[in-house]
Structure formats: C-alpha cells, structure tokens
Amino acid sequence: MPDMQNARVAVYLDFDNIVMSWYDRVHGKNSYARDRQRIATDASDPEIAERLAAATIDVGAIIDYATSFGTLVLTRAYADWSAPVNAIYRSQLVARAVDLVQLFPAAAYAKNGADIRLAVDAVEDMFRLPDLTHVVIVAGDSDYVPLAQRCKRLGRYVVGVGVAGSTAKSLAAACDQFDSYDALPGVAAPPVTGKKDAAPTRRRAKKAAADPAGALLERALRLESDKEDVEWQHASAVKSLIRRLDPSFSEKALGHKSFSEFVKAHPTVAEVDESGNIVLIRLAAGQT
C-alpha cells in the first residue's frame, strides 16, 4: 500500500480541455467553438491574439497546487502541441519538467483520444509506481469518472481540478477532493467588464517580478492555508512546501540566517509568531 506519510504525486493534464474551458469561462459559453476556425487559421490575428491572451492558463498555479500535496513524481500534459493555441505553453511546461504527450489532430471517430491515452497511462503508472499516493487529474470531462474511481479502488487519493462551469458534477463527486481552477492561489479571476479589470492582474504580476521570493512565500502560504484550512501554519511545513515549489530556494542565499528571518523580511506578506515552541506564520492582514 502507498505510504501516505511520504506523499508522492502524479499529475495528468488534459490540456486541450482546460484551455478550451478557460477560454469559454473568460469569453462566454461556447466561445471557443465559435472561434476555433479563426484560431486554427491564424492565431496571430490581433483580435484572436488578444482573446487568447486574456484567456491564458496559469500553468505554474496548477503545478504548484499539485506540489502542495507532496513530491511530484511525474507530470504529463496531453494535447496537440503543434496547434498554436497549445504551442505557446510548451516552454513553460518544459521549464516545469512536464512531459508533453503529443496527440495528433483527432478525426470525428477519435474525439476521446486524450481521455483514453491519459487514462491508460495513469493506470499503468499506478502499477508501475506502487509508492504513488496521489493522482491529480486536471480536466472537467465526465469521461474521467471511471479513471477516478479506479484510482480510488487502487488506494490512491484522487484530486480533481477543473474550470468552474465546465466541470461535470459526476467527476467532482468521483474524486476525493475537487477544486476549481478559478480558485487556485495565483489565478486571477476572469474579467467581468473588459480591459479595466486587468489592472489588478498587472499589479500582481509587477509585484511578483519585483520580489519573486516574497511572491513564492505568499503562494506557499495560500496553498498551505487552503490545504489545512487553518490560519497559522508551521514554519517548517511552509518552508518544505517552498522547497518543493522551487528546489533552488535558500534563505541563506538571499542573505538571511534563518527561515524566520526571511519571513520577517517580508512583513507585507506574512506575520511570524515565535511565542511558543513552534514557530508559526500566517498571511499578513492585507493579504487575506
């Protein structure tokens, strides 16, 4: 049986499903179907390019969320990577050590190719990797219900991630835990009234670029808080999560003698409580 005390996680992304679902979430129901031909013909068309940019998937938010459950053993993304709408993500995914599985353009008779390939790989991996504890399925299609059920029968904890409004209720019910992509830490809410709503997103992006270590601390605290559903977090747990999110992280390399000192150097992000035997930290008041 898998050892749940040493969590090892496998992530499977039906990338086409998430891209299309988020596009519809941002631009309205069935928007992707209406724009599909224009996207395939010329994704660089200014109007189409703008619509695609507004519906960009935050790959890092998904992978960081999966990392909050334990050590990532493997991460696979399934799509037709020759399609421009998917190709723009290749460098991001490769940078996060994601294995890109090529699915060639499907004919009408093979429309569920991604579902079948992903499910076969996941079941094979569970037998090949007996120490696998968690399976994260990033999709919203009800076709994944049998896979989720099989993973649970094989003793794995199943986590689902899907776009709000485009996820089958049966899939959410089949998982041990299901979270909306919209609600993941770092994911900006889709704009409601157009361009003026993009300002907060740009401000967050500038903040993250100016202080990447602070942004990493904030994301780790949000992930740990959502996972444990408590305000104060053990500093050691947050540090372990940060190291999983970014293995190169070192508070000493940043000029701090300890992790607590590193946290104190970011008072706008986090607060520290050292009154007890265990150091506790939480998001600063303005961050909640």
Report on this model:
45% of the residues lie in helices and 16% in strands. With 288 residues, the chain is an alpha/beta fold. The protein has two domains: 8-199, Rossmann fold, CATH 3.40.50.1010; 211-287, Nucleotidyltransferase, domain 5, CATH 3.30.420.610. The strands form two sheets. A six-stranded parallel β-sheet has the order 3-2-1-4-5-6, with helices on both faces. Helix 10 (199-210) crosses helix 11 (212-228) and helix 11 (212-228) crosses helix 12 (235-245). Residues 193-198 have low confidence and may be disordered.
**Overall pLDDT level:** 87
How many strands appear in the DSSP assignment?
Answer: 9
What is the correct CATH architecture of the largest domain?
Answer: 3-Layer(aba) Sandwich
Biggest beta sheet attributes? 6 strands, parallel
- Structural shape: globular
Count of alpha/pi helices: 13
CATH fold-level label of the largest domain? Rossmann fold
The sequence of SSEs as H and E is: EHHHHEHHEHEHEHEHHEHHEE
* Gyration radius over CA: 20 Å
Instruction: State the CATH class of the largest domain.
Output: Alpha Beta
| CATH-assigned homologous superfamily of the largest domain | 5'-nuclease
Strand content: 15-25%
The amount of helix comes to: 40-55%
- Total count of domains: 2
Structural class: alpha/beta
- Separation of termini? 38 Å
Q: Which strand order spans the largest sheet, edge to edge or round the barrel? A: 3-2-1-4-5-6
Contiguous low-pLDDT stretches (5 residues minimum) are 193-198
